[in-house]
Amino acid sequence: MWCHDVGAMKLERTQIYLPSGTRRRLGKDAAERGVSMTAFLREVVEEHYARRSAPASSSFDGLIGCVDDAPASDVSRDGDTYRDTALDERLRKKLGTPKRPTRRTQRPA
């Protein structure tokens, strides 16, 4: 095994086989960045593992605070009606029953 020390980083020699198209793209991308193919490939691999080890944010995290300034809408006033209607529709589709009239809450005048 061949090893090389670069600063605080110990490197081990590894050979890989790439499809010719991938090899050409790798060389082109490295040249555009002004680095060697080896340095570019190390960077890509390190970025890959950094992403994998980073804690995944949930889609819920993006919702926090996104509607703080939004005015109340009919969804907040008529949520029960919308849920009832959606449930009735799902049951109707599942059971094949005819659509029944939905309840409608009265809005204050």
What does this structure look like?
This protein has 109 residues and is mainly α. It has 2 domains: 51 residues, Arc Repressor Mutant, CATH 1.10.1220; 32 residues. Helices cover 48% and strands 7% of the residues. The chain is built from 4 helices and 2 strands, in the order ββαααα. A two-stranded antiparallel sheet has the order 1-2. α1 crosses α2. The mean pLDDT is 76.
CATH class of the largest domain: Mainly Alpha
Q: What class, by secondary structure content?
A: mainly alpha
* Gyration radius, rounded: 29 Å
Report helical residue fraction.
Answer: 40-55%
- Please summarize the sheet with the most strands: 2 strands, antiparallel
Helix segment count?
Answer: 4
Mean pLDDT: 76
Looking at the structure, what is the overall shape? elongated
Strand content: 5-15%
Q: What is CATH's topology name of the largest domain?
A: Arc Repressor Mutant
CATH architecture of the largest domain: Orthogonal Bundle
